[in-house]
Nitrogen regulatory protein P-II
Amino acid sequence: MSAEPSHWLIRCVVVGGATRPFLSRLAREKGVWNFFFNGSRSAVADHSRTRARVVQFVENEEFFIVVESERLSEIMEFCYVSLHLDQPGRGTLYVTPTERVSGFVLTEDAALD
């Protein structure tokens, strides 16, 4: 691994509904178009001694952005401020050098099928 990675992967998990407008602003205002977005739904359960029941469904959205080292601080700050990540429960932000992200590679047998 080199001393300074050339690209970084920003992974952000936020409360549902915040991602699409944010990604539009990111593309328009910062010129970043290389991102991937997906959503998920999880259940929150209420447990007692006699039963467990689902209280509510929580929708989260997750997106990944690949940025150059020179723009990492700028884009991270934009994410943090735009998505209000300073407020508890709004989301999380992770940053990883792309050199540490491993891709899925098919074996020779699987590639032949």
Notes: The chain has a mean pLDDT of 81. The chain is about 25% helix and 40% strand. The helical segments are 19-30, 72-82, 108-112.
